[in-house]
Amino acid sequence: MKLFRITTAWLRENPETGAAEKIKTDELVEAQNFTEAETVGFAITEHEQRFKLGDVDINIKRIDNITEIIHNSEVLATSDELIQGLTYSFFEGEEDSGEGLYNVKVVFTETGENGKDKKITETYLVPASSNGEATQIVTNRIKKLDSRIFVVRDAKFDKASAILLTPKTFQSIANA
Question: Residue 150's domain spans which residues?
Answer without folding.
Answer: 3-174
